[in-house]
DNA sequence: ATAACTGCAAATGATTTGCGATCGG
DNA sequence: CCGATCGCAAATCATTTGCAGTTAT
């Protein structure tokens, strides 16, 4: 009893716009973009479609920290950088993949299946705005001197 | 004009309980624990205290994916494993740190400050329950055959 | 024909905030 | 004393869901 996916007009446009973007938008960012072509579309439809497309592996839900989920039109596994100031996410390419031997990881009895390498940085826009002073060692938080 | 932190009774207990735990609770999990000692404490107080303690680097807000934020009483940088089934987080120790040369990372103009290595797996409790069948390659999603 | 899908509105879940009362330094 | 912090309730933000009408196959 496998249910089948229909290629609705909404789904087609959502997929097309997500794939066009080099950035990795949140659901509501994509909603704003898609709304230009389909003014009557609802945000719930965007959420639902991102879900089914990610479930089928046509796109991917990016596993980064941050309150909002982000989506990537490229289903291939690859790494990302997240801007600590604005949350924007971009692709990060490593010249060589880090070798991690799962068997050597002591993980309190967890069965390890994979890992996720997420870079943290400042995006070009936020660097130029210079709206930050310094970071605590590992933080997602910006302190403004006052 | 730096404002100073007061060591209130609530803050003291929250910190004490978080540090006692080897696990990395969400704010509301910690709230339930703390409530046993301070029955009148409010969840908002737990959130506010976790914020100031993390801001000061006394504890850390764990940067893993997942809807709820988790906290670690150990402020030292280290890696974590996240259970793909229940979301539980534990420490992960690597016999040797992966070497990542930031300069070799092509990241669309982002200034790279650090990285975050998060392992994905199944915790002992969920393994023994066996409530899952298989995973898609990189997913946070569990498919149940029906 | 009919199950998958849609838009809308209301529901949920996590976290944050305004406020008047309280307390620590 | 007085500003940081508290408890409480309401507000906000992201995401999900119920439902009745619509559409792709």
TrEMBL record, chains A, B:
GO terms for molecular function: DNA-binding transcription factor activity; transcription cis-regulatory region binding; zinc ion binding. Binds 1 zinc ion per subunit. The keyword Zinc applies. Signal peptide: none annotated. Keywords: DNA-binding, Metal-binding, Repressor, Transcription, Transcription regulation, Zinc. Its cofactor is Zn(2+). Pfam families: FUR. GO terms for biological process: negative regulation of DNA-templated transcription; regulation of secondary metabolite biosynthetic process. Zn(2+) binds at residues 83, 86, 123, 126. Belongs to the Fur family. This is Peroxide stress regulator PerR, FUR family. It comes from Dissulfuribacter thermophilus.
């Amino acid at each position: 009893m496998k249910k089948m996916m229909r290629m609705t007009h909404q789904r087609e446009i959502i997929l097309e716009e997500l794939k066009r973007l080099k950035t990795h938008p949140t659901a509501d960012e994509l909603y704003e973009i898609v709304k230009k072509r389909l003014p009557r579309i609802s945000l719930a439809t965007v959420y639902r479609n991102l879900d089914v497309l990610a479930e089928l592996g046509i796109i991917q839900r990016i596993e980064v920290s941050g309150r909002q989920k982000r989506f990537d039109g490229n289903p291939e596994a690859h790494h990302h950088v997240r801007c600590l100031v604005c949350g924007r996410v971009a692709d990060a390419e490593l010249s060589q993949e880090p070798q991690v031997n799962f068997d050597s990881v002591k993980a309190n009895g967890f069965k390890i299946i994979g890992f996720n390498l997420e870079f943290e940085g400042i995006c070009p826009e936020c660097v130029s705005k210079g709206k930050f002073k310094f970071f605590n060692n590992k933080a997602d938080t910006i302190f403004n001197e006052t």
